[in-house]
Design a protein that fits this description.
The chain is of the alpha/beta class. The protein contains five helices and five strands. The protein has a single domain, classed as Rossmann fold. A five-stranded parallel beta sheet has the order 2-1-3-4-5. The longest helix is centred in the N-terminal third of the chain and has 13 residues.
Length: about 120
């Protein structure tokens, strides 16, 4: 599975990259929403996106809003964030996503959620 991970916390990004590479996935990583949009616009088809909300340059919220206008907009998105009431915030602003995970979280829990999208 091709997974795009958008996360500005380098340690968490490395942990997720290692974990999902070990499971046989191909990982693409971005430190912010702008880098992620550039990857998507280069026609790199992803099977799943894992996206933080609070990031520099272009936030996860802005990324998801712009991604919703992209031809690959049906790609599932798992949001990971420490933002208090983040899930409600996204729903209130009509941001499309498939699953919300609050930070901090266990990597085994994230693996379980990701496996549900691996069809």
């Amino acid at each position: 599975m091709n997974i795009l991970i958008i996360e500005d916390d380098l340690m968490l990004l490395k942990l997720m990259t290692y974990t999902f590479t070990e499971d046989g996935n191909k990982i693409f990583s971005a430190n912010n929403g702008l880098e992620a949009l550039e990857m998507v616009e280069d026609n790199q088809k992803m099977d799943l996106i894992i996206c933080d909300i609070m990031m520099p340059v272009v936030s996860g919220v802005t990324f998801m809003s712009l991604f919703n206008q992209h031809p690959f907009k049906n790609t599932p998105i798992i949001v990971i964030s420490a933002l208090k009431d983040g899930e409600e915030f996204l729903k209130k602003h009509n941001i499309v996503f498939n699953h919300f995970i609050e930070k901090p979280f266990g990597i085994s829990y994230l693996k379980h959620i990701v496996k549900g999208f691996n069809k």
